[in-house]
Amino acid sequence: MGWDTRMQVGSWKIPFFLPFILIMLCPSFAQNAGLTIGQVEKLVQLHNPDNVIASAVTSHGVAFVVTPQVLDTLKKAGAGDLTIAAVHAKMLVGSVTILNTALGSKIQVDQVDAGLSDSRGKLIIPELLAGNHHITASGNGWETAEVDFTLASNEQKEVSVPMKWQGGYLAFVFDAPSATAHITGTGDRKDTKTSSVTNASNLRLFAGSYNVTLEVPGRIAASQSVDLGPGDHKSLKFTLVRDPAYFAAKVLEARRLYGVDDQQAMRLTQDILTNDPGNAEATGLLAIHYLNTGDYNGFLREGTTAIAKGQLFTLAVMHQHLLFKTSVHDAVLKIDSGNLSYDPMDTSCTVKAFTIPLDAIELIKYEQKASNFEMMTIQIKDPNKNGKTSTLSFASRRTVVENNRFIEPNGSAELLHAYGSLIEQVKAAK
Length: 430
Known about the structure:
This protein is an alpha+beta fold. The chain is built from 11 helices and 26 strands. It folds into 5 domains: 83 residues, no CATH class; 73 residues, Carboxypeptidase-like, regulatory domain (Immunoglobulin-like, Sandwich), CATH 2.60.40.1120; 70 residues, Sandwich (Immunoglobulin-like); 65 residues, Tetratricopeptide repeat domain (Serine Threonine Protein Phosphatase 5, Tetratricopeptide repeat), CATH 1.25.40.10; 117 residues, Pleckstrin-homology domain (PH domain)/Phosphotyrosine-binding domain (PTB) (PH-domain like, Roll). Strand 19 and strand 20 form a beta hairpin.
């Protein structure tokens, strides 16, 4: 049986005399001076195992500067993954974070493309050779910026590369929370830009001539022209006229939705009031919604506001002729910022239709006529009686008559009080 002249290294069997060959091929190997690039390539060419070459590189180091180009050369020479990893570990590198460039700027390091900066003007280069470097940042409409820096091995460095805009800036002044600006170039540049803007906006535009159209929901669009030079800061003031047709359609849609989809109707109504705060009809719809849902505080708040804006409010009531009798009929009270009107809606009513100034209302009071029934009485200077005092009695439309008795469902009294309070508050605000 012969001698096995190979020793076991991991899963490889390596010639027993390989270390002697390494010393013969690489005199510096024995002196721990590090392997040269030529020596590593020679070991690869002699088909030495990948893990053994990698171990030699790791133990004794290298006598050359490791660069991406060197790694490519070794790969082409046939070096294995372990050898490449071991040589790569000897590369003297750090990381660089480039800051403060313009969005999407093209970044070059030592005239080699490194990538584009992100939305924050930032680009991270995780591995860059230690040494002196030159950064260039360029972007459309921006002045090219250049910075020199030095990177140490294992250093994590931040480098600021601020850039200067070569165009102009455009601001807007208008009487709405926000608007959509459509901007079209008319000169050498034919750029088209659509942006959501506010009074605080300051848009960056290339130098040139532009047509600017501003749109706000519920307003008639307005347009202006402007010339922007490098470094210009200009402002356009827009007077946006209310579009009655737009809001009339929106109010009609909101009115249709109430009772079908109250949440959507509320959102639409509030959107109308956001863009048209003085819209009396929308405020009135809001008041009616609160009334129908039993929120009488909301009804009073929005109702008085709607009337102050010019809205006419109609209050559905029942007029009673004789107390504790069933001689009642539907009627309406109408109130605006200056007057109260009564419409009997019944030709047999002994009280004829009238309109009086709010100052002619002398008293509003509530009377409990039975355990389950309450009346609102309004004392007025009656124009049908030459200004003499008359008293009108009203019940809620929710009140029903059954077997000659008034039956007042839950909430009817509160509704009647809300009507009376509305009249009193509008009168007090007059």
